[in-house]
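Researcher: We plan to redesign the surface later, but first we want a full-length starting point. Tokens attached.
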């Protein structure tokens, strides 16, 4: 089920009355995600982190594109935590070969 993007006017009161600590907005169901307690899966479920197979990442990015109304630039973090150099290279290579060309065709 596709949800409609929340207007800035509707989103501001939620962000202004957030709990202590850092929070991000869940694009799928409007809840706030507490970043100091959230797991990677929480961020993926919120639609603000993309992970999985190339097909899954493309679908996640399409959903994100729809929620935010598109974007002109993509800043990717292809490494993090305790990922090895080899895994980082593999991750970036897979993204460039299997995801990026599909994105270039249009979301």
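Model: Full-length starting sequence:
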């Amino acid at each position: 089920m596709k949800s409609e993007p929340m207007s800035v006017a509707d989103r501001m009161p939620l962000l202004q009355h957030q709990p202590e600590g850092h929070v991000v907005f869940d694009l799928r169901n409007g809840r706030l995600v507490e970043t100091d307690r959230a797991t990677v899966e929480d961020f993926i479920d919120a639609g603000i982190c993309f992970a999985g197979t190339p097909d899954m990442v493309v679908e996640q990015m399409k959903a994100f594109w729809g929620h935010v109304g598109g974007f002109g630039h993509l800043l990717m973090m292809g490494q993090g935590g305790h990922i090895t150099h080899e895994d980082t290279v593999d991750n970036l290579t897979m993204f460039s070969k299997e995801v990026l060309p599909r994105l270039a065709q249009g979301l």
